[in-house]
Structure formats: C-alpha cells, structure tokens
Design a protein that fits this description.
- The complex is a heterodimer of chains A (about 325) and B (about 350).
- By secondary structure, chain A is an alpha/beta fold.
- Chain A has a domain of about 80 residues.
- In chain A, about 35% of the residues lie in helices and about 25% in strands.
- Chain A is built from 14 helices and twelve strands.
- In chain A, the strands form two sheets. In chain A, strands 6-7-8-3-9-10-12-11 form an eight-stranded mixed β-sheet, sandwiched between helices. Chain A has a four-stranded antiparallel β-sheet with strand order 2-1-4-5, covered by helices on one side.
- In chain A, a hairpin with a 2-residue loop joins strand 11 and strand 12.
- In chain A, helix 5 crosses helix 6, helix 5 packs parallel to helix 8 and helix 8 packs parallel to helix 9.
- Chain A is globular.
- The N terminus of chain A is likely disordered.
- By secondary structure, chain B is an alpha/beta fold.
- Chain B folds into two domains: about 200 residues, 3-Layer(aba) Sandwich (Rossmann fold), CATH 3.40.50.300; about 70 residues, no CATH class.
- Chain B has an eight-stranded mixed β-sheet with strand order 6-7-8-3-9-10-12-11, sandwiched between helices.
- In chain B, helix 3 crosses helix 4, helix 3 runs parallel beside helix 5 and helix 5 runs parallel beside helix 6.
- Classes of the chains: A alpha/beta (about 325), B alpha/beta (about 350).
- At the A-B interface, helix 8, helix 9, helix 10, helix 11 and helix 12 of A face helix 5, helix 6, helix 7, helix 8 and helix 9 of B.
Chain lengths: ~325, ~350
C-alpha cells in the first residue's frame, strides 16, 4: 500500500553514462555509447529498439552478467539503493541479483535447468535468499505458481521443464523471479517466443503482478504494440544510444526523433490502409566497430542537415519529460 | 477455362509416432486435417495460426516436400501427386518457396550470384556472361545493387539475405511463391522493406503468394484472403478486410483481440482467451477449440463442425456462429459440391 504514495517519484535505478565495449579479434564494438536513464519505483519502463541497438546489453551491463572475456563496461555508474553496482564486489553483487533485481529472459527453456523439477528450482531461489527451510520453500514455490496462474500447482511443482508448455515455463520463470519480491524486474523480450494468445495472457499477468506487488519493471522489447500495452515510460535505442525518451502516451502522440517516427510508420497498421507500400527506413544500421561521427542515424534520416553529420546530438528535453537526441527534434515532432 | 492456379482438396497429413508392431495401433500426430482452399493467379492467400496449427506442414505439402496422407494438390488442374521425375521438375518451375530463416536457407559457401542463378542452371546451361546478366537483373529486381553478386551470405545483412532468398525464388519466373514466415525473423524496419518488395513484385509480375505467418498485422496488410488454422484444420477462410472487420469464428476473434496494438490510449477491455492449444496427438473430440471457447455448447464437444459458407463469401467452421443449415438455408454435402459453392461465393465477393 505504501508503494502508491511514492509511485513515480522516487528513483530506484539511476544509470549514468553507461558505456560497454565488446572485444573481437582485432576490433572493438561500442555496444553502448554512454547512456543515461532512470527507473522510478513501481513504474514500468519500456526499452525498445531493433537487433543490435544495445537493449539487452544494457540489462546485462546493469546486472554485470556480460561475458567476462569479451565484454567490459568501461564507464559510467549504475546507482541502485544508494550504491554504484559497478563498484560492488562479486559477492555483494550476488546479494543483489535475484534478490533485489531479478531478470527473466526470452527463452524460458534455456534459463531453466532441465534435470531439476520446476518446484525444486523455485524453492532453491527462495532458500538462497531467505532463511526458509526446504519444506517452507517448497510451499512457497507452490504459492508462487498459483500467483502466476498455473492451474493445479500441487502437481505442477513436480514437473520438469520439458513437461510444461512454453507459456507455462515463462510463467514459472516469472514465479522464480518474484520469489524474493524484487524491487526491480528486468524482462528481456519475455513474450517474443510465445504465440499471440499466450503472449496476451503473460502480458496481462505481468501488468497485474506489477500492480499487486509494486515491483518496478524494465521491459525490453522490439514490439511497439507490447510497449503500448504494458509500459508507462519508454526509451528508444538506436546504435548503442538512447535517441528518445518519453511517457508512453507522449511517445506515440508526438514521436520527436526521426528514427522513432520511422519505426512507428513501418509497422503495418489498418488505419493507414491495406496493400499500400509501407514507409521504409532506407539503408541499414551502422557498424559499431568504427567510431561514428555526428548522429548515428544521419545516413538514413530524411531530416539530416550538415550539423547532423558533424556533431553528435545529446538527449535534451523538447517538452517537459520528453527528450530526443536530434538537432531538429522540434521540427521532427511537428512533421 | 481458367480455373484457379492452385487448388487444394481435403489435404490431410498424419505423422505416425514410431512404428507399429503386429496389430497395435500407432498414435499419429494429426498435423493437417481435411484442408481445402484455392488460390487464383496474382492473389495472396494468407494462412495464419499459432505454433503447431499445421500451417508450415501445408506449405511443405504444397511443395511436395512431404507426401500427403490423403487429399490432392492441383496446379492448373494437374494433380502433383501423380507427377514423376521429369514432370515434377518441370512443375517445380512454377512454384517456389521463400523460407523464414535467411541465415540457414542460403549456402554459406556460395556467392550471391551462384545462389540466385542456381535454380536456372538446374534446367539449362548458362554461359558466364549470361549468368552474370541474370544475376544482375535478379538483384536489381529485389532492390540490391548488382555489385553485391560477389558477396557471400556472411557479408550481407539479414534483410539483404532475405532479398537473396526472394531473388532465388524469382529466378525461374514462377506463378506462385510460398512464403513460410518470410518476414518473421526480421526487424520491423527491414520487414517493411521486404513487404514492399513482395507487393511490388506481385504488381509487376502477377505472382500469386501463399503467405504463411503468425503476425496478424502483416497478414492484414498484404493478404487478399485469409485462412485461419487451428490444430490442423481451417476454422475460417474469408476475404481479408471482412475477416478483420468482423471475425466470425470465436478463435479468429480471440486471435485478433490478442494482438497488441501500438496505441497506448486504447483500453483493453476483453480478457484474453484462456488455456493453451491442445496436443495434436490427442485432439479434443468435436470442435478442437471447444475447451477454450466461451461459446461452446454440447454439440461442439461431439461433432466436428463443417466449413459452412456465409452470405459474405467466407466459410466458417462453428456450430454456434455458423450452423450447418444456416444462412444459405440448406444442408451441405461433403466433397466437391461444397467446395464448388464455396469457391463460387468467394469469387462473387472478390
């Protein structure tokens, strides 16, 4: 209940100038080029963008789950609960992961252990983070499966992952993530591998659980429809940077970055008529192996002028609470 | 004469699970069950449905990559099941396929030029010069620069690879292309480019498409008619606009309602359809959708509903919404008579 008092005000996660590089044989990929954003307590923040834009790398950088040999967060801060997660010891970090920040992934089959029952795995998560006994943890596992609306939880706790359908496994993953009442849940494309009717069920579940538990959610997706249905605020990423951030209503009503506009227009929409050519974003995403001069979207942008090719635009407010990283955002917004 | 380009009659595919011993009955996966439809020249027929509904098996049956358990596939009136080696090869020129995954469907060791001209070289010898000219022409057709012909698939983006897959399908100038989830693996901005390409090609060359997809937004955008499949059967087949404006089968309705809409001001009122798709090994008796259907009555648990033509040219398999003695006022006999009347009423609408 007390969640509601502070909802939307208190900053839970504060990411500043986060910069992550991947190292190949002879090249460096600048996967994240210094991004800053906040997640407020109890809100759902959508992170959208296409393959390679850095949305998953953002999540992995926050939780420090990047592959150690090939990737490194080289700059910035991740402030959570008054501390910088990037400065914690590995031991302290384990106390955060799964406990105060939980994560669910796209493919539930690969994130569940095939040789243990689902109940065992959820109970294990409960036991690691609380002082519960084994039977208490098992009872809690059952209760969590009921919470995520799995029918017949008494029987289902004894199931192995392969005995469940994709939708049910994703529910089980959500149950496991919620085991320790985390303050922040990072969901990376949690419904992308599911059929639409199952996706609709899972999205509804996420929204309901968020309202019930007050957990803040960072929802990573490529699907603008999913964002519109689940999120309050959105950041749009392109080529390792945030190009726009706004409340979900504002973003859809007044997209102010040419990339956001292009993305929205390229989705088929009955309101614009069938069988017509869709507006395209010409060209392809730039390589992040070479340094980019100016705005990374400029080569594909219908609004690009000289300054766009010379200086990198920073994210600035074009309206209160609505930021865009574009030299011509005001004109773009009206277009 | 000009009948439909492609006609599918009572197509059925069962996959046996294991081999039988003596008289033990073998359980089967009922992947496709009594599916009938037709495709006219230059038309796009979409097949939608969720995982396991049989839509990809239909694609494979149409290409004769798997043999049907029962039923017929007729192209220009010829049953492809009867075709022997040479005739089958000749017929394959008329139908080509585009696959979902632009990574695994292209040979990584061949150059773009080789990939897209290979289908033609299966039929005739090309000189080096002819091959280059053909490759350049095909690349231009799919919106790529002829300079790309020396590239390997690994040197191309996902969108460019899918363009190559389409160029390869175009090489033999087919009348029909079967696209199985051809844009599903692509990012939305790339997906828009490929959809535009398909629309352009249809307009310029009059190619017919069987477009298989799980994405209703895409289907609504490019389809002329849509067949909705559930657990191996077509439950509704309708002109595209009519289907989306007013779905009749409760499953079609649920599917359309479940698709997220990119409009945050829209309030979702309806609760999503409950439950999950049952197993095709042991499908529910009667209508396969009845365990999830809010409208189900006693009869749905007993009889499989037949596809019944409605006044607006669609066919629907639902005891409640499309009772068999419904709108047209007469009972229907199974088989060709029913199919003819369905085709008739569809033509009148299109």
């Amino acid at each position: 209940m007390q969640m509601h008092k502070t909802l939307g005000d208190e900053v839970l996660l504060d990411v500043r100038d986060l910069e992550t590089h991947f190292y190949g044989d002879e090249s460096v990929t600048r996967a994240l080029g210094g991004i800053s954003f906040q997640v407020k307590r109890g809100e759902t923040l959508g992170v959208v963008g296409e393959s390679g834009c850095g949305k998953s790398v953002t999540a992995l950088s926050i939780l420090r789950l990047l592959p150690k040999l090939t990737a490194k967060t080289v700059g910035g801060e991740v402030r959570f609960g008054g501390r910088d997660l990037l400065k914690l010891s590995e031991r302290e970090m384990r106390g955060i992961r799964g406990n105060r920040i939980a994560m669910i992934f796209q493919e539930p089959m690969t994130s569940l252990n095939p040789v243990y029952t689902v109940g065992h795995q959820i109970a294990e998560a409960v036991q690691i983070h609380t002082k519960a006994t084994k039977s208490e943890a098992m009872a809690k596992a059952q209760e969590l499966l009921r919470l995520v609306r799995i029918a017949d939880p008494e029987r289902r706790v004894k199931n192995y992952p392969h005995e469940m359908s994709g939708g049910m496994r994703q529910r089980a993953m959500i149950a496991m993530a919620l085991a320790c009442s985390p303050e922040l849940l990072i969901a990376d494309e949690p419904t992308t591998a599911l059929d639409v009717t199952i996706q609709a069920q899972i999205l509804r579940l996420v929204v309901e659980l968020k309202e019930r538990t007050g957990t803040a959610v960072m929802f990573i997706t490529h699907d603008l429809g999913v964002v519109a249905e689940t999120c309050q605020r959105v950041i749009v990423m392109y080529a390792g940077r945030i190009v726009e951030q706004a409340s979900v209503v504002d973003l859809f009503a007044r997209p102010s970055h040419p990339y956001t506009q292009g993305l929205m227009r390229s989705v088929p929409d009955r309101r614009r008529g069938r069988q017509r050519r869709l507006p395209e974003i010409p060209g392809i995403v730039p390589s992040l192996r070479e340094p980019i001069v100016g705005c990374s979207f400029a080569p594909r942008c219908p609004f690009a002028i000289d300054i766009c090719r010379e200086k990198t635009p920073i994210l600035r407010d074009v309206l209160p609470g609505h930021g865009a990283a574009c030299w011509r955002a005001e004109e773009v917004m009206g277009a | 004469m000009s009948g439909p380009l492609l006609k599918v009659e009572n197509l059925t595919k069962h996959y046996p699970l294991g081999t039988g011993f003596l008289n033990k009955t073998i359980p089967v996966v009922r992947a496709v069950e009594d599916v009938s439809f037709s495709v006219e020249a230059g038309e796009t027929l979409c097949i939608v449905g969720e995982s396991g509904c049989g839509k990809s098996t239909v694609a494979r049956l149409l290409m004769r990559l798997v043999e049907p358990t029962a039923g017929r596939v007729l192209i220009d009136g010829t049953d492809i099941a009867g075709l022997k080696k040479d005739a089958l090869r000749a017929w394959r020129r008329r139908m080509q396929m585009v696959f979902q995954d632009p990574y695994s469907s292209l040979n990584p060791r061949l150059t773009a030029e080789k990939i897209i001209t290979e289908p033609v070289e299966n039929f005739e010898r090309l000189s080096r010069k002819q091959r280059k000219a053909l490759a350049a022409e095909l690349l231009r057709k799919v919106g790529m620069s002829p300079e790309m012909m020396d590239r390997l698939p690994s040197e191309l983006s996902g969108g460019q690879r899918q363009r190559l897959g389409i160029a390869r399908a175009l090489a033999l100038q087919p009348s029909l292309i079967i696209a199985d989830e051809a844009v599903s693996a692509l990012d939305v901005s790339v997906q828009a480019q490929i959809l535009n390409l398909l629309l352009d090609l249809q307009q310029q060359m009059g190619i017919a498409f069987v477009f298989i997809s799980h994405d209703l937004g895409v289907v609504e955008h490019i389809g002329h008619r849509v067949a909705v499949m559930y657990l191996g059967r077509i439950v509704e087949l309708a002109p595209c606009e009519a289907l989306f404006a007013k779905p009749v089968h409760p499953y079609t309705e649920a599917l359309i309602a479940a698709a997220p809409i990119p409009d945050p001001t829209r309030v979702r009122l309806e609760a999503p359809v409950e439950g999950e798709v049952p197993s095709p090994i042991n499908p529910p008796k009667g209508c396969a959708f009845h365990p999830r259907c809010p409208l189900a009555v006693e009869r749905c648990r007993i009889d499989v509903p037949p596809l019944v033509p409605m006044a607006d040219g669609r066919v629907v398999a639902c005891h409640v919404r499309a009772p068999a003695t419904g709108i047209l006022g007469q009972p229907f006999v199974a088989g060709s008579a029913r199919l003819a009347s369905v085709a008739e009423s569809q033509r009148s609408v299109l």
